[in-house]
Specification:
Pfam families: tRNA_edit. By secondary structure, this protein is an alpha+beta fold. The chain has 7 helices and 11 strands. It has a 5-stranded mixed beta sheet. It has a 4-stranded antiparallel beta sheet with strand order 1-2-9-8. It has a two-stranded antiparallel sheet with strand order 5-11.
């Protein structure tokens, strides 16, 4: 398997290194069929380099092959609805437009860090689309779904996953949404 999106890192099949995965991520990968699970690679990194820009610079991974997973809270009255958005690192999620409308919320914003960590069972800076709460929509940019592989978190700051875009688009709750991603700047 070629996980070249991880740059200079050497990856192994993710299920061969459960110590590099948050519990919800390991559980989700184990629930996939064998071929899909085998297509996901994991590589250990310096946790201080987990943030996308630092990771790409340190390990030679292309920025346009990295995807950021953000947790969004949409509010309408006293009701809070959560979703995760996955967009390429060269873009940003349209939280106040596309995401807010999809959640049928009056307001939408990034979920507070403590809430995102508690609800996902993952470390901040390592939140990934693999293993999210099944009741959440996973909103995926078309560019992510079309990618051969994207680099995402592993649920912890000490590793990264290489995941086929088509696999991301087939995860529980995944919806590929046109116009989800906007250019940065």
């Amino acid at each position: 398997m070629s996980w070249s999106v991880l740059g200079s890192l050497v990856a192994v099949p993710a299920l061969d290194r459960p110590d590099l995965l948050a519990d919800p991520v390991a559980h989700a990968l184990k629930s996939l069929d064998a071929a899909s699970a085998a297509a996901v690679g994991v590589a250990e990194i310096d946790p201080a380099l987990a943030d996308t820009a630092a990771f790409c610079e340190a390990y030679g991974s292309p920025l346009d092959a990295s995807a950021n997973c953000v947790v969004v809270a949409g509010k309408r009255g006293g009701d809070v609805r959560y979703a995760a958005c996955l967009v390429l690192a060269t873009t940003r999620a349209d939280v106040n437009g596309v995401v807010r409308r999809r959640l049928d919320a009056r307001r939408a914003s990034f979920a507070p860090m403590d809430d995102a960590v508690a609800l996902t069972g993952m470390e901040y800076g390592g939140i990934t689309p693999v293993g999210l709460p099944e009741e959440w929509p996973l909103l995926v940019a078309p560019e992510v779904a079309a990618a051969e592989h994207v680099v995402v978190g592993s649920g912890i700051r000490g590793s990264k996953l290489a995941v086929p875009g088509a696999l991301v688009a087939s995860l529980p709750g995944a919806e590929v949404l046109e116009d989800l991603a906007r250019p940065v700047g």
